[in-house]
Design a protein that fits this description.
Blueprint lengths: L2 H10 L1 H4 L3 E7 L3 E6 L14 H6 L4 H10 L3 E12 L7 E6 L2 H11 L5 E11 L4 E13 L5
Antiparallel strand pairs: 1-2, 2-4, 3-6, 4-5, 5-6
């Protein structure tokens, strides 16, 4: 499936559609930009972004991008995750994901002999003006499939 097709599917996916999350850009599984709109239905008690939605807007991207970029010879799972809230989100926020060739080369080298690799990916959630709202960290489990070792 091409990345633009997956972008359209994710934008219609209920966990994104009904929380104000929109995939703005998804290019060749190497770059994605996601927006979380602040609306009456996704605010918390103090009228800022609900933390679960801030986390959800970042959830699938590192795993999908890494899996699609490495190819069918690899197993890629989400292993762990954490979020650190930096400032209250009082307007629309954005998250950007860039997967570089250097990271893919690092993962291929680390898993070349069949070992697993656990790697952390950091994503900053920011307003359009650049205010840092949260940092989400995702740890991926990557391993080369047995038949391909």
């Amino acid at each position: 499936m091409k990345a633009p097709t997956l972008r359209r599917i994710l934008n219609a996916w209920p966990p994104f559609l009904f929380t104000g999350i929109r995939v703005v850009t998804f290019d060749d599984y190497r770059y994605a930009k996601v927006r979380l709109k602040l609306a009456w239905y996704n605010r918390n008690y103090v009228r800022t972004h609900f933390g679960g939605n801030l986390f959800s807007m970042t959830d699938p991207f590192w795993m999908i991008m890494t899996l699609k970029s490495l190819g069918d010879d690899y197993i890629v799972w989400d292993q762990a995750a954490e979020i650190r809230f930096v400032a209250p989100g009082r307007e629309d926020v954005y998250a950007e994901f860039r997967l570089d060739d250097a990271v893919l080369d690092e993962l291929r080298a680390a898993t070349a002999n069949g070992e697993k690799c656990l790697r952390w990916f950091d994503t900053e959630v920011r307003t359009a003006a650049g205010e840092h709202v949260a940092t989400v960290r995702k740890q991926l489990y990557v391993r080369r499939k047995k038949a391909k070792r």
